[in-house]
Design a protein that fits this description.
- The chain is of the alpha/beta class.
- It has a domain of 203 residues: FAD/NAD(P)-binding domain, CATH 3.50.50.60.
- Helices cover 34% and strands 18% of the residues.
- The chain has 18 helices and 18 strands.
- Strands 1, 2, 9, 10, 11, 12 and 18 form a 7-stranded mixed beta sheet that branches. A 7-stranded mixed beta sheet has the order 7-6-14-15-16-13-17, with helices on both faces.
- Strand 11 and strand 12 form a beta hairpin.
- The longest helix has 20 residues.
- The N terminus is likely disordered.
- It binds flavin-adenine dinucleotide.
- The site of flavin-adenine dinucleotide (FAD) has 36 residues, from helix 1, strand 10 and helix 16.
- The site of flavin-adenine dinucleotide has 36 residues, from helix 1, strand 10 and helix 16.
């Protein structure tokens, strides 16, 4: 490669998503010369805050919103000033039983209250006891497995030995999760609440023989050894802000508004990165190129043909709302301030999830779209301006499942999907959500929806896939050769590494692939 030494870096990072920033911070702290090139005017990718509604002072976590997988080790290593706040309530799931509105409340800080809720819903303690045993097992696995995510990949056999529980290994790593759920739980609603963690951002079903649901479930229950999903105080932009500050303070150069258009490499020596910005086109040369963009984007940048297999496809509808006040619930036994503080499951019974999947698979918007709702401002009001706080505004996030990109070829489908999702919410409310929405400075209701095609257009996620591609089990597929493969960040080109969600232990706001790519580079360049 014809290197222009003035623009030569130890590492050129393609994309300033939170993972690119983590990689940049680690490498710059180790004294390497690092350049980050970000296509958008701001860094953060899917981990950003934005004022979504004109005249309404609320900085919403526009895409991702809760943090579980960001290791405390990364926070410590990089000296990040972050407040990740535990939610009082884990979840609330409304349902109608015997014609009466009721629900299941899982109160993280009060097991007695949770037990009572299980008993009131199911008539006995059996489901509560099964729940405790099941999550006791996932908790034990989480504590053993999570620390391995920031180490070189274990082999399958090594991980199995570490898990040290053959029945749990079989249930989570070998057999479709639906079998375990059906064996363990009898109640349809309880089964559904467990299954939802297997379906976030993953278009699949309980009995998928490819075990996509198991992989997704695993990443949703192991975060920091607890599986808790915490509220980033200040919103997701605060996470990205802290990372960008750490990277800059360590000496990394971060350039926004710079879209990488090509990567040229013969695998040896330096690689060339061509990018364009408002002034024209430039080339940067790196001893290593770290790609934070999705693997499908990398294929295009290298000028290669996509590999076999389906292209990535996201399957969610993200809806952001600002409310004048929280809505009242049909289930009057629960305070809305409790119900919306945790994950509020809608139409997520086990059979409802199956029906929604079948309908979406057949190309139809689910008749009863399943979704999860959560109110950030019940835990952290710092994302609101003083006037919004004074008026008692609340924010609401709705993450809809089983909304694959293929449903949105017709632009009118977005309105239908939004209307159907809000109708399911309304079905459990004592008043329509529309009556609670704040309005922007033009009098329009504060509600915005993002389909997979929107995510592709706005933040470059191929097919709108929130994890860049389907998640993988956190062990090595074969015998890794070289540092990049051992860290799960290799591509077909020795001097080009993945440092984003598409790496083996990628996906979610974790910084793990950024950390792992940096470790691989440090090993390679030191060796
Ligand atoms: C709607 C939604 C909700 C989610 N909710 C959660 C959640 O609550 N919790 C959670 O843990 N995870 C959640 N996720 C997933 C999580 O946000 C992502 O997996 C994670 O942010 C990926 O981070 P990343 O840095 O690897 O990639 P990205 O955030 O995708 O960043 C990649 C960056 O590369 C840039 N880029 C791409 N191509 C180029 C190019 N050619 N040149 C220069 N720059 C380029 C992009 O602009 C982007 O900034 C959610 C995702 C979405 C979309």
């Amino acid at each position: 490669m014809n290197a222009n030494s003035s623009a030569r870096h130890d590492a050129v990072i393609v994309g300033g998503g939170h993972n690119g920033l983590v990689a940049a911070a680690y490498l710059a702290r180790a004294g390497l010369r690092v350049l980050v090139l970000e296509r958008l005017p701001q860094v953060g990718g899917a981990a950003v805050s934005a004022q979504a509604f004109a005249g309404v002072d609320a900085r919403l976590s526009r895409y991702s919103y809760l943090v579980s997988l960001l290791p405390r080790k990364v926070v410590r290593d990089l000296g990040l000033r972050l407040d990740l706040r535990r939610r009082r309530i884990s979840s609330y799931t409304p349902v109608v039983r015997d014609g009466k509105p009721t629900g299941l409340l899982v109160d993280a800080s009060d097991p007695g209250r949770t037990r009572e809720s299980f008993r009131a819903l199911t008539g006995a303690d059996r489901e509560w006891e099964a729940w405790q045993r099941f999550y006791g097992t996932t908790g034990r696995i989480a504590r053993r497995l999570f620390p391995t995510l920031t180490e070189p990949l274990p082999s399958r056999a090594e991980l199995r030995r570490l898990v040290a529980d053959d029945a749990a290994w079989e249930a989570l790593f070998e057999r479709p999760l639906g079998e375990t759920i059906e064996r363990t739980f009898a109640d349809d609603l309880v089964r559904g609440v467990v299954l939802t963690d297997a379906l976030i951002g993953t278009f699949t079903h309980a009995h998928d023989p490819a075990l996509r649901q198991n992989r997704c479930f695993l990443y949703h229950v192991i975060g920091n050894g607890t599986g808790d999903w915490d509220v980033p105080v200040g919103g997701m932009g605060a996470v990205t802000g802290a990372l960008a500050e750490a990277a800059r303070a360590a000496g990394a150069e971060i350039r926004t508004g710079c879209e990488v258009t090509a990567i040229a490499t013969d695998g040896n020596g330096d690689a060339e990165v061509t990018y364009r910005h408002h002034d024209g086109e430039e080339t940067a040369v790196g001893r290593r190129v770290l790609v934070n963009a999705a693997p499908a984007v990398l294929t295009g940048l290298l000028g290669e043909e996509p590999g076999p297999g389906p292209a990535p496809e996201g399957a969610q509808l993200k809806v952001n709302m600002v409310l004048r006040r929280l809505p009242r619930l049909r289930d009057t036994a629960v305070d809305p301030r409790d119900a919306f503080a945790g994950t509020f499951h809608i139409a997520e019974g086990y059979r409802q999830l199956e029906t929604a999947y079948t309908e979406a698979e057949a190309g139809r918007i689910p008749s009863a779209p399943p979704s999860e709702i959560y109110c950030h401002t019940l835990t952290d009001t710092s994302i609101l301006g003083p006037e919004a706080v004074r008026q008692g505004f609340q924010t609401l996030t709705l993450f809809g499942l089983h909304m694959p990109a293929r449903l949105f070829a017709d632009p009118a489908a977005k309105e239908r999907a939004l209307a159907a999702s809000l109708a399911q919410l309304d079905a459990v409310l004592a008043e329509p959500i529309a009556d609670c929405l704040a309005t922007d400075d033009a009098g329009r209701p504060c509600v915005e929806a993002k389909t997979p095609p929107d995510l592709e257009r706005e933040i470059g996620l191929p097919g709108g896939h929130i994890f860049h591609r389907d998640l993988e089990f956190p062990f090595a597929a074969g015998s890794p050769d070289g540092a990049a493969a051992r860290w799960g960040v290799a591509t077909a080109h020795p001097n080009v590494l993945l440092c984003g969600a598409g790496a083996v232990r990628g996906g979610g706001v974790s910084g793990i692939p950024g950390h792992n790519a940096a470790q691989a580079v440090l090993e390679e360049l030191a060796g």
